[in-house]
Amino acid sequence: MKNLISILSLTLVFTLSVNAQILENSTLWKIEGNGLKQPSYLFGTIHITCDATIEEDVKKALDATGQVVLELDMDDPNLQAQMMQGMYMKESKTLKDLVSDEDYAAIDSLFIKNMGMSVQLMQNVKPFFLTATLYPKLLDCPMQSFEGELVKIAKEQNEEVKGLETINDQMQVFDDIPYEAQVKDLVRSAKDNLAYDKAMFAKMLKVYKEENITAMIEMMNDENYSAVADYQDKLLDNRNENWIPKIGEFAKDQPTFFGVGAGHLAGDKGVINLLREAGYKVIPVME
User: Fold this and answer.
1) Which domain holds residue 165?
2) Around Cβ 228, how many Cβ atoms within 10 Å?
3) Which of 27, 50, 104, 269 could be joined to 141 by an S-S link, Cβ 3.0–4.6 Å?
4) Residue 156 covered by a domain
C-alpha cells in the first residue's frame, strides 16, 4: 500500500516551475542559519525507481539528525483509509462523463493490456489516480521507493517519521483541478499505450541519477503534459510555500532529515530558493 501512496505522490511533481535558477547538481542539501542550533538536511527523492539505494552521504545525514519528515507521514496507520476515501470523484461523476466513447474505449484497452482488468471497475476514480496506477508499468524493473527506504532506516534508528502535509491536503489538490483537465494526459497515454510516458520516465530516471535538479524542471515542462502545467500552482508552488514554515518549525525543534520529491527543490518557487528567502543558508552536500 505504501508503494501505491508513493506512486500517487508522483502525480504531484509531474509539472514544475518554468523559471528556474541554475543550482548545483545535488539531491542532498544542508540547511543552516536563521536560528538553527544544528543543521538539518533536505533530500530530493524520486517516488518510484529501479534502485532506491541510500548513498553514504545521505546515510551520514540520517545519522546526524533525530527525525525524518517526508511529504506524508508514511507510517501513519490511518493513511491507507484516508487515501481511499479521497480517490473518488465527487457528485457521482464517472470516467464516461468526461470523455468520448472513442477515448473511453482507448482507456479501457490500455487498462486491459497493462493492468489485466477493465477500467470500468475504477471509472469513478479521479483521472489523476487512474493515471498513477499505471506508473509501475513505466519501469522495466521491480518498483522501489526512496520513501520506503527512509522509513525503514528511521525505524531502525528508533526515530519518528512525520509529514509536511496530510493525505487530505494532497487529495484536495485533485478536487481543485477540474476532472476534465486531469483526464487529458490519460487519453494521450492510452492512444500510444504508454510509449511516450515510458520514454519520458526513462529520461527522468537518468536526470535524477545525475542529480541535475534544474534539468528536471526543464524536461517536466514538456508540452505533452500541458494539462497539468496549467495547474502547477496547485500541484507544486502552493505546497512548497506551505512547507517552508513547517520545515523551520521541525528544524528548530531538532536536527531533521527532510525527504521530498526532487521536483520540489529547484526553481524560483522551489524549496531551496524559498528557504533562502526565509533567511536560511542552504548549501549542496557534494561528495
Assistant:
1) 2-85+140-174+195-284
2) 22
3) 50
4) yes
